[in-house]
Amino acid sequence: MSISLQTCPCQMNPSSDDISAPLLYQDCCQPYHDSLLSEETDKADGIKTETAERLMRTRYSAFVLVKPNYIVKTTLPAQQNLLDIQAIESWAKETNWAGLEIVAHTPKLGKRHAQVEFKAYFNVSDNENDGLQAHHELSAFVKVTDKTNNNAQWYFLDPTVEMTITQKQPCICGSGEKFKRCCGMYI
Ligand SMILES: [Zn+2]
Ligand SMILES: [Zn+2]
C-alpha cells in the first residue's frame, strides 16, 4: 500500500487507544513534507506549519520516514549548517520508531516562542533492556518573521548545537533582541 494511504506516523500513540480516527499520511504530515522538500520554490513557499505542535509532529514523521532534509530545514536557519545530516539520517534509520505522544503544548511563550513536551517512542531489542522506550523531551520553537514579506514561520531551536554567541549579542533568530532575552532563554 502507498505510504500516503497509511496512518501518519505522528498519529500512532502507544500509550493511548482512544485515537478514534487517526489521519492518513496524505491528510496529515505529507503536505508539509512535500511542500518544504519540493525543488520548485513557489511550492516550497506553500504550506507552513501553523503551530509548534504541528511542526513537532511533522518532524517526528520525518524521522520515521527518514527525511533528514526536512529535519534540517525546520531547524532555525542560523543552526542549519551546524547540523550533521548524515548522523541524523543514520539515527532515523537505526531507530525502531513506535509512536508519538504530545504531553503538553504551550503555544505562546513570550513574544515569539512556544514549547512542546512530547514522548517519542521506540522499540529496543537487545537482551538487557528489551521493549518499548521513550525519549521524553521539552522542545522549544521560535516563530521567525521574514521582514521582506511579513511571512512568519516556526522553527525548532536545537539545544544540542554549539553556538558561538554571547548573551549580549543579537539573537540567532534575527529578532533584533539580545540573545539572552530571546532564544537564549530556551536553549
Ligand atoms: Zn502526521
Ligand atoms: Zn531569538
From TrEMBL:
Q: Where is the signal peptide?
A: none
Q: What is this protein called?
A: SEC-C motif protein
Source organism: Psychrobacter cryohalolentis (strain ATCC BAA-1226 / DSM 17306 / VKM B-2378 / K5)
Tell me which residues make up the YchJ-like zinc-binding domain. Answer: 4-36
Q: Which ranges carry the YchJ-like middle NTF2-like domain?
A: 51-158
Alphabetical list of Pfam families matching this protein: SEC-C, YchJ_M-like, YchJ_N
